[in-house]
Amino acid sequence: MERVKNLLNISANLKKTVADTLSSEILDAAEKIKNRLDSGGKLLLMGNGGSAGDAQHIAAELIGRFKKERKAMPALALTVDTSSLTALGNDYGFDTIFERQIEALAGKNDAVIGISTSGNSENVVRGINKAKSLGAYTIGLLGNEGGKLKELVDLPIVIPSNDTARIQEVHITIGHIICELIEEEY
Question: CA-CA distance, 13 to 116, in Å (whole number)?
Answer without folding.
Answer: 21
